[in-house]
Amino acid sequence: MTKNKENIKKRKETTTVVVDHDDIINNEEEQDRMDDESTDPFQKIEKLITQFNEEDIARKQSRQQGRLYRFFQNKWVKLIRKIVEAAIWVSLSIYVGIKTEFKDVVLYSDQINRLWFNIGLFGLVGFSVLFFYSCYLFYFVSEEPADWEKTHPRVVPIATVFLCIFSIGVIVGCWPVWGFYTPFILVLYLAGVAGLIELVSWGELAKRVQTENDKQQEIEENEQQPQKEQKKKQ
Fold this sequence. Notes:
This protein is mostly helical. Among the domains are: 7-45; 89-203, no CATH class. The protein is 89% helix and 0% strand. The protein has helices at residues 2-38, 40-65, 67-72, 75-99, 102-108, 114-142, 148-151, 155-178, 182-200, 202-233. Helix 9 packs across helix 10. The protein is elongated, with a radius of gyration of 35 Å.
């Protein structure tokens, strides 16, 4: 009888130990869950970001599967579209120049503030020299890409200053003639000049479109690579 009592006591002790051990495990799990809940906002943000990225990739893939999207992503379609846009800007600037009699006003009008207008011309000459050297003369001499932000990064701030001087000088100088419409006319003329440069250098434009197309294809391949790896694993 005494042996049976001792065995029963040992069993009770072992069960209490097991129960205590289970309680410790449960307490640790609750503590981990509480820790997870404490960091739950950050996890929710990460989940939302990953979900948004997945949805964005799915939308891009659905676009890529459409015929219209593939048509507009063709490099020749891009080139023709850019040429048409440039021709439209040039045509609009010529039309506005004829309607506003831009040449006669700039050369002969007494209403223009000549001091500010000449300051604007100084800024235009400085910007044109830097732009021509960085994008065209340097390209023909060294045969490197005509991206002046990469080849001449120090020239860009100076050219920006010259462009600001040109804009302020011309707007203030021509304000007595066209008034509130002066900034819009100036922007239209600048867009026309930029379009004319693109039309003249259409070969360089074709190269730029080709590089953009290559970059787009590389991005699409990088986006599709994880899905291909998942399919291989499955």
